[in-house]
From TrEMBL:
Species for this entry: Atlantibacter subterraneus
Protein name: YfiR family protein
Highest taxon, organism lineage: Bacteria
Length: 174
């Protein structure tokens, strides 16, 4: 357990550092870096019931993260799979889905098609975070913030470290 505790502390410190970029414009590189750190942090603190390799995360091409992953030279803790639509996402059999401009209703429809497969669900354009994804990033503010839909997360089949959930609670946008 000491390693898990250290990793939780590291994530907290990493997330606390994000407010230091508050004076930067939301479209800047630092906000992009914040998105990458938050997503990587959430993924690294997520556990799937029977996953033995790095999780495959379907990333919709409509998202900011898709461009960041393509431009990224830093090693990732997950395997990104860029998809154009829901059909490609279903065919890719990913362990997580990162939505871009897909509406929450579209997210919910794809999530339903994936059931009962355990899925980590993250979205950029779901500011209400009431339906669809479990984690909802608000990338249009500096610092980048995120919220958690606990109902969606409880049905997702994955387990997320409670420290991440507390960060979302303290970091809730609106």
């Amino acid at each position: 357990m000491p390693v898990l505790h250290f990793r939780a502390i590291y994530l907290v410190l990493m997330m606390v550092a994000i407010p230091s970029i508050a004076e930067l414009p939301s479209s800047g590189t630092n906000n992009d870096e914040a998105v990458q750190r938050i997503v990587s942090g959430i993924i690294s603190y997520t556990r799937w019931p029977s996953l033995s390799a790095a999780p495959r995360i379907c990333i919709f091409s409509s998202s900011r993260l898709a461009k960041l992953v393509n431009d990224n030279i830093t090693p990732l803790s997950y395997t990104p799979v860029i998809v154009e639509n829901s059909e490609q996402a279903l065919a890719s059999q990913c362990d997580g889905i990162y939505f871009g401009k897909e509406r929450p209703e579209e997210q919910a429809k794809l999530i339903e098609a994936y059931q009962p497969h355990p899925l980590l669900l993250i979205a950029e354009q779901n500011t209400q975070c009431l339906i669809g994804s479990s984690f909802c990033l608000n990338i249009n503010v500096t610092p980048v913030k995120f919220a958690v839909n606990l109902d969606s997360l409880s049905r997702s089949g994955v387990r997320v470290n409670p420290d991440v959930l507390m960060l979302a609670r303290n970091n809730n946008h609106d």
